[in-house]
Amino acid sequence: MSIMKLLQQAQGGQWLAQLAQQFGLDESTAQQLTQMLAPAIGSAAKQRAQEGEAERVLETFRGESQANLFDDPAAAASGAGQAQGMDFLQTLLGGKQEAEGLAQEAANRAGVESSTVAQFLPALAAMVQGGLQKNMPDSTIDGMEARLSGSGGGGLIGMVGGLLGGKKDAGDDNPLGPLVQMLDQDGDGSVLDDVIGRFLRR
Prior knowledge:
Blueprint (H helix, E strand, L loop, with lengths): L2 H6 L6 H8 L4 H24 L3 H7 L7 H4 L1 H5 L1 H15 L2 H15 L3 H22 L2 H13 L2 H11 L13 H6 L20
C-alpha cells in the first residue's frame, strides 16, 4: 500500500476536503499539494532507511496516540498536530530548515502562498504519521526491531533491497516487511522526488 492509498482511507475518503478547509484551500489545490508532498515524505523515509537508519525511521512511527491524527484532519491541523508533524518531518529530513525548504518548493510549484504550505505540510505529515502508526502499532514495531537486531546486517540489507524495488527474501522473511509495504509508492511518486535529496541533512 502506498502512502497516497493509505490517506485515501481516512475519513471515508473525505479527509482531503476537511484538511483543505482548515487552511482555506480549495480541494483541487490541496490535492495537488498532497500528490507532491505525501510521496515525498515516503521518499525521505526510504532514503533514511537506505542510509542505515531503519531503526530511527521505525521510532518515528511509535506512539499509538498518534493514530487519532489520521482519523481527524482538524486535529492534525491544530497547533499540537502541526507540532507533531513538524517533529516527524525534522526527524526524516534532518531539521526545521529542511522541512521549510520542502514546503517552499511545493509552494512554488503549486503557486500557493508559502505561509499556507508551511502549515499544510506538517498537518499532512501528522496524518501520514498517524496512518502509518495505525497500520503498524507499537507491538508490530517492537517485533520488527527485535528481528532486525537479531538478524545482524542481513535483515537490513534485505529491507533496503525491498525499498529499492528488489525481490524480497525467500519466504517473505524481511524483518521490516510492514514498513516496506507502507513505503511502497506503487507508482505514485512525487514530482519532488527529483529534488528531495536537497532537503535531507546527512
